[in-house]
Amino acid sequence: MDGILRAFLERQFVEGMELAVASDLLDLVPIEFPVEDGPPVRYLAKFSCTGLRIVDGEVREANESIVGITFTPDHLVTVDPMRVITWIAPDDFYHPNVGRGPLRSHGPLTICVGNVRPGVSLVDLLYQTFEIITYQKATMSEPDSLNWEACQWARWNTDRLPVDCRPLKRPSRPLEVREIDLREIEPGGAAAGERARASQHREDGW
Amino acid sequence: MSVNTMVTDDMRSASTAGEYNTSELRESVQQKIAECWTSMEIDPSFTVSLVGCGATGSAAAFLLARVESVRELRLIDHDVIEPHNLMGQSMPGGVRPGTPKAKALATAIQAIRPDLRVVPIVDRVENRPAGEVFGATVVFSNLDGQAARRYTVEQAWQFGVPVIDCGVLAQGRLVRVTLYAPEPELACVICGIDPAVGGVSEQTYPCAGDEAAVTPAPTNAPAWLGTMAASLQVAELEKVVRPGPSRLLVGQELLMDVRFHRQYISWLPRNPACPFHHHPWAIEKLECTPGDLSLAKAFALTLPPGTRTGGNLPRWLRGTNLSLSVPTKQFVRSVQCGECGHRRSLLRLRHRLRESDLACPRGHGEMLQIPHDIVDRLYATCLDRELSQSLYSIGLKGADLFTISGPHGDRHFLLRGSGAGAGSPGRQGGLPDDEPGAAAPVRSAHCPQGCP
Predict the structure, then answer these.
(1) Which one of A35, B70, B249, B315 counts the least CB within 10 Å of its CB?
(2) Which tens digits make up the pLDDT trace of B171-204?
(3) Which residues partner with A46 through β-bridges?
């Protein structure tokens, strides 16, 4: 494996796992290691965010989606959109950018995240996939979509979109914990504070 | 006509240290020229592979036919002659539209030089066995697509074969010739390409339809401009054939502005961050055909002599981390019918899928490749009965190149075929490339099973 490609893949592995650790909605599993002790080139990404499925003609929520991500040997020069992100499950996912193409009732689902430039990072791919699944990004024009019915549904139901507003990465708000004395805030000084605490303890059953 | 030769600002940027030193730069380039000259195994009778038979390629083909040192000429182009080609390209007269360009040129050239072996190949260069195209002395790249040009230069580089590339810009009446010599310190075709721009221009999308092919826009250049570019190409070739006082375009690019009578020579800087490895491969030539070599035996080629496999090579291989790949190609592991959903396991090269592979056994429709089951390499641990399959059955042909990766690193093997072997004249007759059970003996390196 070329040194430049290897360095790129190692960086993607580190950044991808960091994102997975910092996310409540993403599980990332590397599945292919072409070189022993080397970085992975393929991943499985499971998103626990809300998407949509079509079951017996009815649009329902999908709580889990799985995609595969592949870094080809010439990923830094050219990208094969058919292979860089591959749809795995569920098989009845409902989205204008996920489908089998027109006039096909069976066959593998493909996902189109739009323009994918050479050397795109794993984190970028994960974010683009997340935006597709949660309907934060959806094609509204049938000729550009893979599922014409879903495209029409999305146009008629824009008020319901996106279907999941949570961010992929857990917001980091550092909590400052400080122990306070109730006497500082209770009116009546220390005695009032003692009586308030005693009353609270009785209510709590202590 | 006066010709102004200028040293461009590219020379200043060529120094990786960021400092401009003309004398040092020129000395290193001259040294590189000398090294390239001596490193090339100049064969008085050699083979030229001409990739692309369009505006420049058609002219180059006729010019190459008149170079006495050329003994074999391989013409590769998938396209057919269209009416507008007859005026814009150097196609022979009396040819009907619809005739493959490579065949039309081959017939005309054979009439000029009956002793010249001309091999027309009507196919895309990416689909041909690598040894068939790049097992030559020199490769002429006359392509108008960036992806095909990149593929041609990179594959030739890996074979250690120099590439003389040319192009024209009709609007500006510009002609460009570049010589890519396979040396680690020299620039390749993508050293100067911005992937963010070059990759997008020829990218396909799933919503564009199955296997949507990107066809580069035609150059629409006048025939004389293509002939001018071809002449400069052949002129560079002659410098290789007949060493003498001249200037070889190693690591440089010649740009001729015909409109204003100017000529520019630019140094192509080696990009240290170029994703291409820049090292020619050490390719081991096998004397066996793909029909004679099973996957297990192919893996076994890399085992040290005397390796004990306990008498069960496939089982032993499944405990290793060996993998087989065909450079730039993928394998399809399963397909699914688009009408009934029937799914079938498969193991074949993606660009060599047959009609039978894509026909639904239930007679419904076309079987589609499952994107997640398209893989770049086959791991021995993931193969079971497939290990006993021959390379021919998974789509490899004669003169194909495959790589076995493992703890030893990568080892590259070239299957026997009519085009295999750099610099060798084409073999007359012989066996078909992809026919199993060839009569020729099979010799493999270091096979513990003792391949005959």
Answers:
(1) B315
(2) 889 999 999 988 888 889 888 776 555 444 455 5
(3) A27, A66
Q: Residue B366 gets which letter from DSSP?
A: B
**Cβ A106–B323 below 8 Å, yes or no?**
no
Is the CB of A82 less than 8 angstroms away from the CB of B204?
A: yes
Per-10-residue mean pLDDT for chain B, 452 residues long? 32 39 57 57 74 94 91 94 81 85 94 93 95 93 90 94 92 92 87 59 52 56 91 88 72 91 90 88 94 93 83 83 94 91 93 92 86 94 91 95 92 80 35 37 32 34
Helix or strand (DSSP H, E) at B272: none
Instruction: Please give the helix or strand (H or E) that residue B300 lies within, else none.
Output: helix B295-300
Q: Do B196 and A118 touch (CB under 8 A)?
A: yes
- Which ipTM score applies to this complex? 0.80
What letter represents residue B104's amino acid? A
Residue B13 pairs in a beta bridge with none
What residue has token string 């006497």?
A183
Determine whether the interchain pair A105/B338 forms a contact, defined as Cβ–Cβ distance below 8 Å: yes
Measure the CA–CA gap between A87 and A85, rounded to whole angstroms.
7
Q: Which pLDDT band, with edges at 50, 70 and 90, does A198 fall under?
A: low
**Residues in a beta bridge with B74:** B49, B119
H or E segment to which residue A77 belongs: none
Q: Which of residues 12-71 of B touch A (CB under 8 A)?
A: none
Closest residue of B to A72, CA-based? B376
Q: What is the DSSP-derived secondary structure letter of residue B369?
A: E
Verify whether the Cβ–Cβ distance A34 to B323 is below 8 Å.
yes
Structure tokens at B161: 């074969």
DSSP-based helix, strand, coil % in chain B, nearest 5: 30, 20, 50
A49–B contact, CB cutoff 8 A: no
- Give tens-digit pLDDT for B359-407: 998 888 788 999 999 999 999 999 989 999 999 999 999 999 999 999 8
Q: Is residue A106 a contact partner of residue B341, using CB atoms and an 8 Å limit?
A: yes
Gap between the Cα atoms of A16 and A76, Å rounded: 17
Q: Which of A5, A77, A108 sits opposite B370 (nearest CB)?
A: A108
